[in-house]
Design brief:
With 301 residues, the chain is an alpha/beta fold. Helices cover 46% and strands 10% of the residues. It is built from 13 helices and 8 strands. A 6-stranded mixed sheet has the order 5-2-1-6-7-8, with helices on both faces. The chain has a two-stranded antiparallel sheet with strand order 3-4. A hairpin with a 3-residue loop joins strand 7 and strand 8.
Length: 301
């Protein structure tokens, strides 16, 4: 089981009231929510391995070089060296180090790699896995990793993590008309304002799905631009032709990496906390006794 950790703690932050605070008044709603998310996932799905995948760089420079608008609207501060600072709610940013400390104290593997997003870590771990993989994320970009033959699916939280949409190829075809491999092409054609991806003007989700159905994949669509016998409308042909520079670079931006140089780590789900004294101290310091007790019980079950 691979967790898109930032996606989940953002959901926890907005889903758990900010009245949940530490004894000193510091909000810990995202921390408590994430720990409860993990406990519920372990309780319901019993994974052998669990990895909390982290955004060491939420806006990698190599993606920005290809498409400068990539996540540009979410930059709070540009930096000369290291990742740009992302706009984050004032009371969420201080909770992230507590989340990291709690995961480490429990012994839950936490993996992030400089220059890459959590999506890329997930893509690499998914490519390397020899057994079934469940990816837990609120980010539809990871639908591209769905692969029934290799038992790769996405668990998309609808309400907390107690209600999950199980995303397999049948679900994708029903919803979008594509399989996992086709989702990245659909996403780049359609564009995504939340990620600063412009897409092809005039090509929405339904048109993108129809083009992929007719021509197979992005390469087939590009070949159709130059084929006078293809059934592209004049407007589609013109817009796709004018979008060639974008279509040349978008796949590398949209597709998750599968070759990230990962550090050594132990993915095995712990049965008991690796550092029980630290877990107890975190519970006391941040008023997290209930969430920590629930996660501990889930790990033991």
């Amino acid at each position: 089981m691979l967790l898109d950790t930032a996606s989940l703690y953002y959901r926890a932050y907005f889903g758990v009231p900010d009245s949940v605070k530490a004894p000193d008044g510091t909000p810990v709603n995202a921390v408590r929510g994430l720990l409860d998310f993990i406990g519920r996932l372990v309780q319901d799905h019993h994974p052998d391995d669990l990895v909390a995948c982290m955004d060491a760089d939420w806006r990698p420079h190599w993606r920005v070089e290809l498409i400068p608008s990539y996540k540009a609207h979410r930059v709070a501060e540009e930096t000369e060296s290291g990742p740009d600072v992302e706009e984050t709610p004032d009371t969420l940013a201080p909770q992230v180090p507590i989340i990291e400390a709690a995961l480490d104290a429990f012994g839950i593997a936490r993996v992030g790699v400089a220059g890459y997003e959590a999506d890329d870590v997930i893509g690499t771990l998914t490519a390397r896995a020899t057994g079934p993989v469940d990816i837990v994320t609120g980010d539809r970009d990871l639908y591209q990793l769905v692969d029934d033959a290799r038992q790769r699916r996405v668990l998309y939280p609808l309400k907390g993590v107690g209600m999950l949409q199980v995303t397999d190829e049948a679900w994708l075809r029903e919803k979008y008309g594509v399989d996992g491999a086709g989702y990245a092409d659909l996403a780049l054609l359609r564009g995504d304002p939340s990620d600063g991806l412009p897409g092809v003007p005039g090509v929405g989700e339904k048109t993108a799905a129809k083009l992929l159905d007719a021509y197979g994949d992005l390469a087939g669509i590009i070949a159709a631009i130059d084929d006078p016998k293809s059934k592209l409308t004049p407007t589609q042909r013109k817009r796709l032709d004018e979008s060639r520079p974008y279509l040349a670079v978008a796949p590398k931006v949209v597709q998750v990496a599968s070759d990230v140089p990962l550090p050594p780590f132990d993915p095995a789900l712990p049965r008991v906390p690796a550092q029980p004294e630290v877990v107890d101290a975190l519970a006391h310091r941040w008023g997290l006794g209930g969430a920590i007790s629930r996660l501990s019980s889930a790990l033991l079950a």
